[in-house]
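Async update (no meeting this week)

Hi team, since we skipped the sync, here's where things stand on the single-chain job. The sequence we agreed to prioritize is pasted below, unchanged from the tracker. I ran it this morning and attached the output directly underneath so nobody has to dig for it. Comments welcome in thread, and please keep replies under the output.
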Amino acid sequence: MTGAQVTGAERPLQIGNASGFYGDRFDAVREMLTGGPLDVLTGDYLAELTMLILGRDRQKDPRLGYAKTFLRQLEEGLGLAVERGVKLVTNAGGLNPAGLADAIRELSERVGVPVRVAHVEGDDLVGREWGGGVLTANAYLGGAGIAACLRGGAQVVVTGRVTDAALVSGPAAAHFGWAADDYDRLAGAVVAGHVLECGTQATGGNYAFFGELGDVRRPGFPLAEIHPDGSAVITKHPGTGGAVTVGTVTAQLLYETAGARYLGPDVTARLDTVRLTGAGPDRVRIDGVRGEAPPATAKVGLTRMGGWRNEVVFVLTGLDIEAKAALVRGQLEDALARAGSRPREVTWSLARTDHGDAAVQEEASALLRLVVRDADPEVVGRAVSGAAVELALASYPGFHVTAPPGKGAPYGVFEAAYVPVGDVRQVAVLPDGERVEIPPGSGPVAAREPAAVAAELPVPLPEGPTRRAPLGAVAGARSGDKGGSANVGVWVRTDRAWRWLAHELKVAGFRQLLPEAGELEVRREVLPNLRALNFTVEGLLGAGVASQARFDPQAKALGEWLRSRHVEIPEVLL
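Output:
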């Protein structure tokens, strides 16, 4: 990678992904390096919960704080990458990118594969005044530091907290020589990076219409062919499982976004300008992406230890489910009151998973879940578990629990803060040790006009009789977490269905279908090019995934719940 200007005739830059989270398929690095041609292989190991886990690792040993799995993958993968001329770019550095870079150099000597390693630092802001209890504080950096490392001759680039899409936009900027204000090109690469960042979610994993894709038991990991103008084709290595379709790419584009403007430290990508077209089997072209200047502030992810948490799940079987739940709840509440040790937060929820006249005992059972939280581990530990166990022979008929009550465990909370971009000093540490400071983004400029809204579509609203059916009969969805908020992207596959969806699924209807959102702020964004709506539900997840505020703490299945709800749908769409 030279950073020199290129002509439109140059072949695309092929960037693959081998990890969507810390714990993803271990063999993916080898699979991607041996499955077909690549120029760059990326790995995304970081998430809000991961930062908390790495923070606790660093507390135990300051030399840690990075994703150790990546090192194990390199024991074989480093030689394969060097042999094939593939650059490796990863955020596995976590809280200690310099430490991981040193560990890779040691590994390089041990396995006899010389390699030039660079890293990016400057995201760690934990030493600043954030208030009590902050375990980690990391700014989301862009791809400019990665680009500087690659221009400096690095074969392996390790970062800390960068945006997930920066793992793609950084190499693309280095290869094609893009300037910091080449916003349309950068935005195109960011969109491609967003598609790749969650690995097999772009190739059929977690896909709403998975039954239409064929064999999705082991989807291949995705890759993007990036062109000099920022457009891209999403595909995968030949012979790998899953599929790449307009639908799978649409689903991933809607994942964990909050609106038409996808803010990033290098560029603001306009999701309402994205065009997707099929370009052959397992090939989807992304073009038309417009970019704007990045915001003047940098996002900082803060994690804190929130306290201690415990959980007991009572199994209620057969008749009188509500009465059984009331009995054990009253007994346990009385016991905690008598002991004078009621936790700060006590939450009960009853999941009516039972069926009448069931032929299988499990299908005749409901689950009563008790969750307690407190700053004192003793208050949620023995005081709760002991009170629950003591009811074993003195409560409702058929008393049992899903697992023996334990001591409780610590939980964390996530918070987003914002600082001026000038307060974050991103530094690229090149293979020879030279430190290159990366200037901050240029700040906001005049915003461009949004794409056409649904009301301007020429397709008429469907007419004729309707039938009550699941929303998922015509619409796909994908959902996820953004701190304490949840997003749900909903899309359809024809213009006629889009016309109906855009007019029928407003915020009020969304609240009716998902009553949990009834008292929360809900925002709706319209993305006509994708035939999609994006809903953001503020505060649904409390203080983030690590706080485990609800049954589905990352809102991964919130979209599938929405698809299962019944609505009146025109029969011509069914």
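Quick observations from my side:
The longest strand covers residues 297-317.
The mean pLDDT is 92.
Reply here if anything looks off.
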